[in-house]
From TrEMBL, chain B:
The chain crosses the membrane at residues 37-57, 63-86, 107-129. Membrane-anchoring subunit of succinate dehydrogenase (SDH). Its cofactor is heme. It is found in: Membrane. This is Succinate dehydrogenase hydrophobic membrane anchor subunit.
Length: 141, 135
């Protein structure tokens, strides 16, 4: 359609173009949009750990010991902590999207509030879960 | 529209007649809907999942296997695994469709995404069933 309609125009009208992304002031909602996707990708690969752990439990003590030596290591614990945060953040971000899907929360103040709640809530839930985990089992999963 | 309509400029068909039944294939929102369905499922499952994880903390393999093999916990695990892997498969496909522009590479990536997701889901299901049967 554009090709034929443009050919019919004798003079090409200079219309304002959509500005590039970097023209806009960077906002928290933009950051969290990317973080939502990034946490989704992290959880995608994190699921490998969940499945590895399930297979290990079903395989026997040897395989389970390998998982435990990983989860009790410094790096393993950091990954488990990161996984918890990614899950909590992505979940709250998802709730925010469901609220938007239902048609609520589009006013600037509501939008900002939801975004802040996602960010702070994700961190808060993660810390609470890890405090509970250390209180119950003396360490992460 | 100034361009010639597909059925010819002199067609006797009305504009409405031309577009009727050429609209939605009634399947375009399947992934969108499943993404929401699985997300709500996971929101419902997150509390039981956290409880299960807390119960399992600090246990040895035999203890963990016994707990994971009990019917309610095995079913919670199975539901969560299915919902989460379905959700992540759709999510990754959206990302591939956004960023991979080469047609064949896109096909290969989407196929790999499907293979990866199905393998993970069935491996998890295998482990859960094995634990439940007490082998």
């Amino acid at each position: 359609m554009p090709a034929t309609s443009e050919a019919m125009m004798t003079v090409r009208i200079e219309r304002p173009l959509s500005p590039h992304l970097q023209i806009y002031r960077w906002t928290l909602t933009m950051t969290l949009s990317i973080v939502h996707r990034a946490t989704g990708v992290a959880l995608y690969f994190g699921t490998l750990l969940l499945v590895w752990w399930l297979m290990a439990v079903s395989s026997g003590p040897g395989a389970y010991a390998a998982v435990q030596s990983f989860t009790s290591s410094w790096a393993g614990r950091l990954i488990a902590f990161g996984y918890t945060w990614a899950l909590m953040h992505h979940m709250l971000g998802g709730v925010r999207h469901l609220v938007w899907d239902l048609g609520y929360g589009f006013k600037p103040t509501e939008r900002e509030w939801l975004t802040r709640a996602t960010l702070i809530g994700g961190i808060l839930l993660t810390v609470l879960l890890w405090i509970a985990a250390y209180a119950i089992g003396g360490g992460g999963r | 529209m100034t361009a010639t309509p597909p059925s010819g400029a002199k067609s006797m068909r009305t504009p409405l007649g031309r577009v009727r039944n050429h609209g939605s294939a009634h399947s375009g929102t399947t992934d969108f809907w499943r993404q929401r369905l699985t997300s709500v499922a996971m929101i419902l499952l997150i509390v039981p999942m956290v409880v299960v994880m807390m119960i399992l903390l600090g246990r040895n393999q035999a203890g963990a296997a016994q707990i994971l093999g009990s019917p309610p916990i095995a079913i919670i695990m199975l539901l969560f695994v299915v919902a989460s892997i379905w959700h992540m498969k759709i999510g990754m496909q959206v990302i591939i469709e956004d960023y991979v522009h080469d047609g064949k590479l896109k096909l290969a990536s989407i196929m790999a995404n499907n293979f990866f997701s199905v393998t993970l889901a069935l491996t998890a299901a295998y482990a859960i069933f094995k634990l439940s049967s007490g082998v």
